[in-house]
Design brief:
Elements lengths: L1 H17 L14 H25 L2 H25 L11 H31 L2
Keywords: Membrane, Transmembrane, Transmembrane helix
Protein name: DUF2243 domain-containing protein
Organism: Thalassorhabdus alkalitolerans
């Protein structure tokens, strides 16, 4: 039961983080390529900090749930919302497609890694 709760808490929390559409940057506009990349670097650093905290202080199932949710929402959001429907982009500069492509590849990797590791954890616990 703990695995189930940890997994879904990780999924729902990451979904909440990915869809903070009304986030404000204290009114500072990011207009140049450097500024936009700086904002993305800051967001990436906060995300990596969250991954570290979820890996270090929570059960493995929570961490796997975070990776699976991150990978799924990154790939699904970018492919469907950004590329197919053109509702919004990661940034509106020329760097958007390259960064989004890298995030889709990374997202697929995170999704696969989280699923494989969680499945391996479940199988290992059955035999002990």
């Amino acid at each position: 039961m703990t695995r189930f709760i940890s997994y879904f808490f990780g999924v729902f929390y990451v979904d909440l983080l990915f869809h903070q559409y009304q986030a404000q940057a204290f009114g500072f506009p990011a207009q140049t390529t450097g500024e936009r990349l700086g904002v993305l670097a800051f967001a990436g650093a906060v995300t990596l900090l969250f991954y570290f905290i979820s890996w270090r202080f929570f059960p493995p199932s929570f961490f796997h749930g975070v990776l699976i949710a991150s990978g799924f929402f990154a790939t699904f959001d970018i492919i469907v919302i950004h590329w197919i429907f053109h509702l919004h982009r990661l940034t509106y500069g020329p760097e958007a497609f390259i960064i989004e492509l890298l995030l889709v590849i990374t997202g697929f990797g995170m999704l696969a890694y989280g699923l494989i590791r969680e499945r391996k954890t479940i199988i290992e616990e059955k035999y002990y």
